[in-house]
Amino acid sequence: xxxxxVTQLQSKGISDTAVLEAIxxxxxxLFLNSSFEDFAYQDKAFPIGAGQTIxxxxxxxxxxxxxxxxxxxxxxEIGTGSGYQTAVLCKLGAKVxxxxxxxxxxxxxxxxxxxxxxRPKHLSFGDGYKGLPQHAPFDRIIVTAGAPSIPQALxxxxxxxxxxxxxxxxxxxxxxxxxxxxxxxxEKHELGEFKFVPLLENKN
Length: 204
Ligand code: SAH
Hints:
Elements: H1 2-11, H2 17-25, E1 46-49, E2 52-54, H3 57-67, E3 74-78, H4 84-91, E4 95-100, H5 103-115, E5 122-125, E6 138-143, H6 152-156, E7 158-168, E8 173-180, E9 186-194
Parallel strand pairs: 3-4, 3-6, 4-5, 6-7
Antiparallel strand pairs: 1-2, 7-8, 8-9
Helix pairs in contact: 1-2
The protein binds S-adenosyl-L-homocysteine.
Family: Belongs to the methyltransferase superfamily. L-isoaspartyl/D-aspartyl protein methyltransferase family.
Active site: 55
InterPro entries: PCMT (IPR000682), SAM-dependent_MTases_sf (IPR029063)
């Protein structure tokens, strides 16, 4: 079933062989509630608890491809959720730092990933709008929830030459890639429309 999913992703335009290989290897059905198990290799989003969803495999593949992760890159992920995207980044050889604001998901995913032999560098419970200044700068930053605008803190935590991929918008989002040119300048690319759950700000 995973091979079929990979073929489907290729037909939708995913060509990065490392990304496709990661998807071929990662047991997505173990990131979902068992009632969705039979559908895990369809290109669909599913509920993961706390009102959140696991992203479509195409979305995960697309963001991972755009990121151009290399081995040993320090990658910051905002929105750990089920941990599936985290697992893809780990398979690509990145040192992954991931932040989640729903405690229920943070706890469940912190237990799940090591059971599957997947070891991100750091999982944290908190507000991803702030990034992780204590671990910055990052080679790559990926946001997996829809942001009304690009958080300044995340731009500040990106290395020069680094790439930040983030869906921007309220109801629908435009996948946006920022490449940091120097201290003050970022090159911006808009890469099509997607639909994400919102990136929420903490109330306190
Ligand atoms: N990559 C995840 C996507 C989950 S959906 C997966 O495929 O499973 C997006 C996630 O972003 C949700 O878990 C949501 O709780 C989280 N999120 C939303 N706003 C956030 C914030 N400000 N900081 C950290 N995580 C946030």
